[in-house]
Amino acid sequence: MKTVNLSRREILQVGGLASAWIALASCSPLRSITGSPPAAGSGAALTPTPSPPPDEDALLRHTLRRMTFGPTPEMLDRARAIGLAAYVEEQLHPEALDDSEVEARIARLETLNLPLDEMVSEENRGRVVGEFLAATLIRQAQSPRQFHEMMVDFWTNHFNIYLGKNLAMRGLKLFDDRDVIRPNALSTFGDLLRASAHSPAMLVYLDQAQSRKEAPNENYARELLELHTLGVDGGYTQQDVYETARTLTGWSVVGPRRRGRVRGEPGTFVFRPQMHDDGEKQVLDLTIPAGSGQQGGEMLLDYLAAHPSTARFISRKLAVRFVADDPPASLVDRLAETFQHSGGDIKEMLRTLIFSPEFAASAGQKVKRPLEFLVSLVRVTDLQLNGSPRPLIRALHRLGQTPYGWATPDGYPDEAGWWLTTSGLLDRWNLAMLIATGAFRGIRIPYRRLLADAASAEDVVDLLSLRFLGEPLPDEARDALVAYASEGELQERVPAVAGLILGGPQFQVR
Fold first, then answer.
1. Which residue has the higher pLDDT, 93 or 265?
2. Hey, what's the torsion of the CAs at 127, 128, 129, 132, to 10 degrees?
3. I want to staple 477 with a disulfide (CB 3.0 to 4.6 A). Which of 14, 16, 21, 161 is the partner?
């Protein structure tokens, strides 16, 4: 199939889709975007309108959009065959899903299993980041354990660590992903918090590794309270930050080998008693006795993991991720109750969330961030990530969301207003067109396989819509694309039609 060069003028001539794009770029209500767009240039504020109650299949499609990086036809068929409740439960037990093909591909990325000192050697330091990012994208795009991958992404963002902090972070963050985030993404919040607090990557990123009793460093202590547990409105004071910093002095990381001497395995957690302030501390209403040593920090983590403010903060953050940018208080309240009654069981919280009426009513109220946009595009077009992921990583950099690339500890924003800028939407549009028309180096959509049963312009539009969106396009957009595909040679119009759907407003919604 020929590479197609489609000008923006030609795209804008495809009437219904063009007006829908203008609506999206001007931050019109998301339900309007997924249905009939408002008048071009209306400039309406971004206030998502509640959806009508979905029918059974619409609810299934909505649920899979939220709990995966893009539902493929095969996943939709599986969910329909066993029922939504059974499918959600299946995804909540990823260990039972065969991921051997993906893991075999990742096993070929040789630097991922090296010890830290070899990872950051001059020979390997350039490869390790690329292979780590490749492994991340391969898992997100091709693993059947999609809900697990979504939660890995959620917790990676919650416990954000910037890969570019320093040279050692290239290996330390990889260990954090392998040993902290992935094993605990569907465990309990307490397990995950404790693992993160012992993570060398986290301790280096937030300068905890050098914190000593003479001058406690408050960076990690502050983010532990504000971003990881209680939240900014969680009731703590600056004195609590200071007392937390005192409690965690001596929590450090084994450094590199020097002159052949071995002081433990480089890049692993170590408690250094000589750096620890062993006096009594008071954090909120928790008293940590003098002489507690490392155990004082463990007591503090247990206390924070069970705190009511933590329950509410984590509950709201989950609701923002999976329901709406401004989630209903009723849902946050129920999630917080589940958190406290279950001891922070992440699976129990997700069950409460997914099967809530608020979740069912939230279709169209979340927009894909750039990572979700690109990975979902890879998934629904059945692209195989067989070569170097560098072109996709560069694309993510242009779109503004390279994995592990957010420098500050608050993580990538999760509100539509951050991403729905005119330039950001045009970048998505252009990227979709480049990939769809074969102009993106090393990537080709297998149209012959996807459209084997297409005999007309109507067939092309309908088959691509069902493949990419899981449902038909709104009538206005469908009519516009059918008219466009009917002009000239159909085979030559197919890539542009695909690009218009992938870059269009319906594909931006999750």
1. 93
2. 120
3. 16
